[in-house]
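Assess this:
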Amino acid sequence: MELSPLQKARYEYQPKLPGMLRNGIADICVKEGKATESVADQDKIKALFPNTYGKPEITFEKGQNTAAAKKQVVGVILSGGQAPGGHNVITGLYDALKATNKDNVLYGFKGGPDGLLKNDYVVFDDAFIDAYRNTGGFDIIGSGRTKLETKEQFDIVAKNAKENGLTAIVIIGGDDSNTNAATLAEYMAANNTGVQVIGCPKTIDGDLKNEDIEASFGFDTATKTYAEIVGNIERDANSAKKYWHFVKVMGRSASHVALETALKTQPNICLIGEEVAAKKMSLASIASYIADSVEARSKTEGNFGVAIIPEGIVEFVPEFSVLIKEINELLAGTKTEEFNALPNWDAKYDFIKKGLTAESFAVFDILPTGIQQQLFLERDPHGNVQVSLIESEKLFSELVKAELNKRKAAGTYTGKFSALHHFLGYEGRCAFPSNFDADYCYSLGYNAFMLISYGYTGYLSKVSNLSKPAEEWVAGGMPITKMMNMERRNGEDKPVIRKALVELDGKPFKYFEANRERWAKETAFTYPGAIQYYGPSEVCDLTTVTLSLEKG
């Protein structure tokens, strides 16, 4: 494999561990806290997870290691979309395994959960692991989105685990993947397999977050990558002074990425889906809000600007959210096949008209045909609309253009409006991890082994106090069931990890809210530039603005 100079240099970077984990594994003991309960639907979650529900949170401290000495054979998978730092979770897990007992073994199952089902794996050694330290991507073993949720699947995983002598499985993923981890842990415990299951919190969307999980890994790197690109676009807009750039960024279910990118770059407009929902903003009111900035700037700064649009924004617009829910129910189960078998769009249009309420069809009918068809593209694994396939950045620029034309006809607007569109998605998922993500992920992996060695199962690897230097980070674990509630998925009620939304009374949003009126009218752009890996700690090891404001 051809190596870049940066890749060679990053191999030599030694990630920083929490102070407690630096003591040496022989000097780490465990402290158990209070019993936990799920965030909602306690009776239902407890009934579904009788063997793993209600366990205590734990913290690792300095003291004599009392974990039972035994050979550990651990399997690891990467699950869901890529996020910077995944390789370091694996290298941290591997290093902790080998530091405890050189005969411990780490299996990497290929292609995500499918690897567990197909028993397709590699056995890691030093040379294999060393080639992936501090690098981006999930190419070390690949990933996948197969859900582990049926007894038949669990039976296969248990059989393969027994065949390979596995003592534990580590699932590195987001909310759905860690829901899989919780259900698999429950099955393994209920059937006395002796196989522990540990999860690690990954998602660049930032929505796997709560009072215990301060940040999901990959969010820091991805938002720094997006902010660099948005800063470049802002500089270009301010140079040419003739385009409005509509930039869609990742984040279907929450607007954390959009907010963090805006805090870093100070664009003229940033929509926050959670606010749109709270204020019950319509498509028309959003268009008018953006048009106000366009009009004001045309009179002072010029006919240019930058607007950041979260990927899932349309789901937060009440009228659109209701429409999407109706579509999800309309195509639940076998109805998707029936719909796809229809011969043309006219036939599908009639099917839709008959299946939606009059109110939702009225919303559907005002959309451009292209957007209408995007609502009926391939479903996600839960049978839901793939919101990321809806070109909302183009939808809103068209709505703004229509609003400005009305103002022009009324004589209140005399500027020019030319829009350019960008979608920042894959660009941020596999970047070289920032020092923060390299350190955090390595710590999560190392910590996952500590949970395994002390016999815990159904737990999430937890590293907190993240706004402080790594020396002051706190390592431990929490039961995954603590984060769970019941939600409607594909026409059924299912236990899932509750997604964390942007808190409108939180410090990050309040800071944004206090400054956005000025940003909307002035050219107050900031240019973060590329991720810094070497130099002063205050430059290279900074975490997100979001976390700094929350914990500062």
In short: The chain has a mean pLDDT of 94. Residues 283 and 317 are 7 Å apart (CA to CA). The chain has two domains: 29-218+433-497, 224-326+367-428+506-530. DSSP finds 22 helices and 15 strands in the chain.
